[in-house]
Amino acid sequence: MGLDVGSRTVGVSMSDLLGWTAQGVEIIRINEDRSEFGIDRVKELVAEYEVTGFVIGLPKNMNNSLGPRAEAAQKYGDLLVETFGLPIDFQDERLTTVEAERMLVEQADTSRKKRKKVIDKLAASLILQNYLDGKGKLTKE
């Protein structure tokens, strides 16, 4: 399961059974300020898709340092480990949302309003696809 974690939404993607391609699944609404992290919905998706691990986008700064958003993503990862006991990995997601927006504008000519509804899901797909392309498949141990 690939995740693009924000302060208000979590974009979700899944790989195919062979771990070759990533597809966007949905966007989970969360509220970081109220400690609402959408874990109940993540539980449903983990069961439905028989998830064996998580890949979480790590929004590093351009100088490779970790800022507040990266730290929030790491805390979300800690919550997932605590809840599910499944392996997690982090994937550098610098410019992933920018790339997703560019794809929606150039390839799909998507309106700004429609882009907002799908951008996190597409970003999660790019995060997971980059992980699969670079590191290989998540497998059951």
Automatic annotation (TrEMBL):
The task this protein performs is described as:
Could be a nuclease involved in processing of the 5'-end of pre-16S rRNA.
Q: What is its EC number?
A: 3.1.-.-
Annotated Gene Ontology cellular component terms: cytosol
Task: Set out the biological process GO terms recorded for this chain's protein.
Answer: rRNA 5'-end processing
Q: What one GO molecular function would you report for this record?
A: nuclease activity
Q: Which Pfam families match?
A: RuvX
Lineage: superkingdom = Bacteria
Q: Which InterPro entries match?
A: RNaseH-like_sf, YqgF, YqgF/RNaseH-like_dom, YqgF/RNaseH-like_dom_sf
Query: Keyword Nuclease on this protein?
Result: yes
What span is annotated as the signal peptide, if there is one?
none
Chain ranges passing through the membrane: none
Q: What class of enzyme is it?
A: hydrolase
Q: Say if the entry is tagged with keyword Hydrolase.
A: yes
Q: Which family does it belong to?
A: Belongs to the YqgF HJR family.
Question: Which HAMAP family does the UniProt record give?
Answer: Nuclease_YqgF (MF_00651)
YqgF/RNase H-like domain mapped to chain residues = 1-100
Q: What is the name attached to this protein's record?
A: Putative pre-16S rRNA nuclease
